[in-house]
Amino acid sequence: MSRVEALVVGGGLAGAAAAIVLARAGRSVVLLEKEPSAKPKVCGEFLSASALASLSELGCDAVELGAVPLDTFRMAARGRAVSVALPFQAASVTRAALDEALLAKAARAGATVLRGAAVRTISRDDGGWRADTAHTAYSADSLLLATGKSDLKERRRGTGLHDGMVGLKRYGHGAGATTSIDIALFPGGYCGIQPVEDGRLNVCLAVSA
Questions:
Q1: pTM of the prediction?
Q2: In the Cβ-directed half-sphere of 149, how many Cα atoms lie within 13 Å?
Q3: Which of 43, 33, 12, 68 is nearest to 171 (CA)?
Q4: What is the pLDDT of residue 162?
Q5: Strands 3-9 and 165-173
């Protein structure tokens, strides 16, 4: 079992970005991602101006991924609707496309990206950390947990602000020339709709369980 300087658990946006920065700084990095390929996430997939700037610093051009520019925000609630122009540059791209692109960037930067490597346990190891998967153990001086909503058994977090809410998502077709984010509020939750690449619409619901 070889030892590296940094072990990143989770290959979403946070994990991939951390691996890119560390690898560019000359650190030896192993990133462990449980999924064999990037998958859709229950997520609005909205990229603000600051998010676009951060991606650019990582060498990722959202436009090259097919991101749709957004310029308008519309909200409806209680029989009323408002529409305003966004005061900053924004865009929308699927998490599957974005996650895949950043993992590829991490590998090109020099990080070892291992997919289909679900971490089962984490423990202290000779002043550092050890992560065990079904087949292999990895050792590192530093550990970065970037597991998103997927807690590890021995690293569970407390109840969040939105406990009791359920997220639902589906892609639709026929976005056309839509460049707006649409939010509809209703008792017990809200629905968000916005265009993503390939002429699709991302429809997300957050509702009370």
A1: 0.90
A2: 8
A3: 43
A4: 66
A5: unpaired
